[in-house]
Task: structure prediction
Amino acid sequence: MVGTRDGAIARIETEYDSGDFIAMLADRIAIPTESQEPERMPDLYRYLSDNIGPYLKPLGYDCEIFDNVVENGGPFLVASRVEDPSLPTLLAYGHGDVVRGIPEQWREGLDPWILKQEGDRYYGRGTADNKVQHTIVMAALAAVLAERGSHGFNTKVLLETSEEIGSPGLEEFCSSHKDLLAADVLMASDGPRMNPARPDIKLGNRGMLAFDLEIDLRVGSRHSGHWGGVLEDPGVTLAHALACIVTKKGQILVPGWAPDEIPPSIRTALKDCQVDPGNDFPEIDPEWGEPGLSREEKMFAWTSFIILAFITGRPENPVNGVQPDARARCQLRFSADVDPTNFVPALRKHLDEQGFPQVKIKELPDGFFPASRTDPENPWVPFAAESITKTQGQRPIVVPNSAGGLPSDIFARNLGVPTLWIPHSYTGSCQHGPNEHILHHITREGLRIMTGLYWDLGEAEGMKAA
Result:
């Protein structure tokens, strides 16, 4: 059996247009895999054992479910189909868990566990994040197998069920199962497109560091009439300390926090990355952030500092007193071009030099994940871009890294694979909130894109360990 590329794409289009794909997705949406709710642990196992496993096993995959070594972490499923060890090996990743359904907040007529179509939208919890995306991946693999009779490459599928609570155990699992997960490239689908009208490829993610700044001057507040003006006010002091970190327009002032420069290959790639925030997004101030950079360079290639919360006293019930303490929860988002181990020492030095030795820096136990980025010149990147162009007649946007968080670093560091994220959602999907949905046209395009990509991978020469 040989088949054709067009034949494989026609198969997946027929599966979608007939309603079979949507029916399969509906079955998956109906399983309430809320990883934030401990009582849903049986549903996490059921999703893998009763739904995903029975779909992949008839396709020739060996499936195994692993318990999580981290307490309260959900299970993992690894499915492997090895056709020939000399062929390139693809690693696909997705997550079967979702955030809380919060059904009481959904619009009338919608239920988070019942897939419902309205116009161009399919509503349901997990549609965008991430059930439709890994369902697209597996359906595309099946279409190529049905058309060609083989894939022409080896495949490993990793599904976790704890992504929405920070992927506890994923690091340990990848580290202890390197041989099982060994591959030449990771191609996964998660997150939104930059622009609903154009496919894209993301090559990694920005990192994140969260920390608290605290001032603790005394026990209890003191009468503001008697002591105001002579006692140090921690809220005022902390406000000035925060103001020495960034300008009033958000430009970072701490030496060593921002890259020395944006690498030329990244700057070139970002020229084609135009952010489309959508019609319902707040107006963006072009003057906010680092002067001289485009919006895309600020979002994807620079460091940003954000104050997530700032408190002194009791705002809900203020008293007439000079407060004893103040605290701010802060966050940095950063690219792979800076050294995150220098952030806290650089801030300590900067605060001391600016006259704020009393401000303490408190690092948080779960307040960090690293940045990761595949080189845009890695051979897998043009391979994927050319395949998508061939399928869609439109070149995808190649984004050096997403602005948000993805577990790219875990795979790159533990498995040594380049990571390519090919998303099939969009920024207006309402993921994590009520009325989560996917778009008809992006879903159908995603099926075509991934089917064409897998067909081309089966015909690729010289891509093993590229």
Remarks:
- The longest strand covers residues 207-216.
- The chain has two domains: 5-205+371-459, 209-259+303-366.
- Residues 5-205+371-459 form a domain with the Aminopeptidase fold (CATH 3.40.630.10).
- The first helix runs from residue 5 to 17.
